[in-house]
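Quick check before the chapter quiz. The format below is the same one you will see on the exam, so make sure you can read both the input and the output lines.
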Amino acid sequence: MIDMTALKAFAEPYYIDKDIMHNMWHIELVQRMVERILSLGTYEINKEHLLLALYFHGFIYHDEEKIRHWLQEQGYSAKDIETVVKIAWESQRSEVPETLEGKILHDAHVLEGGKTYCMVKTLITGSVRGQSLEQTLDFMEQHVLGANHCYLPETVPLCEEMNAYTEEFYREIRQGIQ
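Here is the expected output.
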């Protein structure tokens, strides 16, 4: 069983200096979407692995060894550690997940906050990075439009709706500032 106090104490420092769209609130939003996805489907999953990977997905790419060490200290088996690390990696937007837990976490990461959130997150993140609106829209055109994909039957239509909304919003804002 997960010691949530220990998990949060371990993970929070990795999110403390992140921008407002990638801090611990981001974890809460993704977790809410995980719960929504689970309510839509009938999946038999390892919820503990999924929850651990959720907390690690935002820093797995920099601190995988520290995560592995912490999991080992918590008494997780080598097999559990490998699985949690795999799921955390699979949650990255650019990855194609193989495990069911990875698909759930990946899709929740893509869909966090609902269909309008992708646009909001991109605009806020661009602003936090000091980009002009034009630079943020260029980034969006190159890296966001058409880049979001989901893999579960329950999430594919939600992703399609989000992508259509994002593209329409993008076109309207581009036309409005020209």
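If your answer matched, good. Residues 132 and 146 are 22 Å apart (CA to CA).
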